[in-house]
Amino acid sequence: MPGPTYIVLSTRYDEVVTPYTSEFLNGSNAQNVLLQDKCANDTNAHVGIAFDPVMIKFVLNSLDIWGPYWPIDCANPLG
Fold it and tell me: Which of 7, 14, 35, 46 is deepest in the core (most CB within 10 A)?
């Protein structure tokens, strides 16, 4: 029976978890996403990412089993 799927959204500017790549998970059931690979101008760091509109939309999309968690309009994520 397959287990859960994990999605990690990390930020290059994390000042708490260093290096930021240590946030990523290994395994076939893990999807790692670097925020700046999707929204290059988003410079939120560790605390700010919790309030980031792109992150909020990412979480909402990730909880929707019927839709993809990306793409997100970086300029107007909550549109």
Answer: 35
